[in-house]
Amino acid sequence: xxxxxxxxxxxxxxxxxxxxxxxxxxxxxxxxxxxxxxxxxxxxxxxxxxxxxxxxxxxxxxxxxxxxxxxxxxxxxxxxxxxxxxxxxxxxxxxxxxxxxxxxxxxxxxxxxxxxx
Amino acid sequence: xxxxxxxxxxxxxxxxxxxxxxxxxxxxxxxxxxxxxxxxxxxxxxxxxxxxxxxxxxxxxxxxxxxxxxxxxxxxxxxxxxxxxxxxxxxxxxxxxxxxxxxxxxxxxxxxxxxxxxxxxxxxxxxxxxxxxxxxxxxxxxxxxxxxxxxxxxxxxxxxxxxxxxxxxxxxxxxxxxxxxxxxxxxxxxxxxxxxxxxxxxxxxxxxxxxxxxxxxxxxxxxxxxxxxxxxxxxxxxxxxxxxxxxxxxxxxxx
Lengths: 117, 255
Ligand code: HEM
Ligand code: SF4
Ligand code: FES
What we know:
The complex is a heterodimer of chains A (117) and B (255). With 117 residues, chain A is mainly alpha-helical. Chain A has a single domain, classed as 3 helical TM bundles of succinate and fumarate reductases (Up-down Bundle). Chain A has helices at 6-31, 36-39, 42-50, 52-80, 84-113. Chain A is elongated and about 50 Å long. Chain B is an alpha+beta fold and 255 residues long. Chain B folds into two domains: 2-121, Ubiquitin-like (UB roll) (Roll); 124-251, Alpha-helical ferredoxin (Fumarate Reductase Iron-sulfur Protein, Chain B, domain 2, Orthogonal Bundle), CATH 1.10.1060. Chain B is 35% helix and 14% strand. In chain B, a hairpin with a 2-residue loop joins β3 and β4. In chain B, α4 (124-132) packs parallel to α8. Residues 167-173, 190, 193, 232-233, 235, 237, 239 of chain B line the site of iron/sulfur cluster (SF4).
């Protein structure tokens, strides 16, 4: 991971942002099918997660923005302070946090679909 | 005869302006024994073409010789006299009092450079970064060994890089750059603009090795398009554009 070229990482950073613009637009349009209060009702939330194409899209948005956001955080932290140990900690810490967040978000989607809620 | 009298008339109608005075505030700081920066104030007369460097030298001549300032050419060529003038990085020899439109002129050392004393700063980091990007033509043959004798370029090929070849290594761009302010390992706009200067030169064959050098965690990607470098460059180099053009190679838009 730390061997990855910075240009490859930044291509992923820009790519995930562009893909997120498209998918978040769909996400927002889907939200407009109900009014705000309704879309937060328990049954509607569960129904959304159980609608596999939509849940799949949410999962993809989760992955895209976790990659984008935590790489962005890595960039901010690298520019804030420098040092070999610190920079290694930042790089691995951001990857770990990214994996953690994706796992946590995926868990919600999976639990709904496995009938655990 | 008529001409002579018209010149005389013109001179009479624009008399040499009686010199006005300006307050010069000079930042004084010696890291060896001062804990903070202090300002010394001087009132100095100036004329239409007097530069900021002129009045600093006036202070050195008549008031306080110990003011530390670096300069040489006095004509925006050597890149020695960069400093913050009323808050903006500028060349002292290339900035006239009249253009500043202010009765008070504050001169401070450039940001993002370690201070030696007063207005003089250390350039090691700039020179190291500049050196790191290999600021010379890279190719196996030379003008001496090649049959052609000369590496000819068309005017169009010269146009690709000539603007970037005007860099005088004054460091104003690095001083204005917000990333330079926090990232002590950032390669900086000066070196990136020079990386572009050589990559874009049709005689050069070192593109890949240079792109590799700037494609690292404190390299080109730490530029966030602030554009301050290009605003302050006294030679019209436009480092910000050079950086975006270089990015084009790394993102696959140019080859
Ligand atoms: C979908 C719309 C988005 C677009 C088009 C987008 C685009 C970008 C771009 C181009 C950069 C690089 C800026 C630079 O290098 O100066 C960036 C940086 C960043 N992005 Fe996003 N982004 C989006 C959404 C998000 C979201 C939702 C988050 C939070 C999870 C986020 C977090 C960050 C962070 C932390 C940075 C680093 C800060 C910086 O470099 O300025 N972005 N984004
Ligand atoms: S690019 Fe311009 S501002 Fe930067 S060092 Fe060169 S001449 Fe000075
Ligand atoms: S004294 Fe040489 S650039 Fe100002």
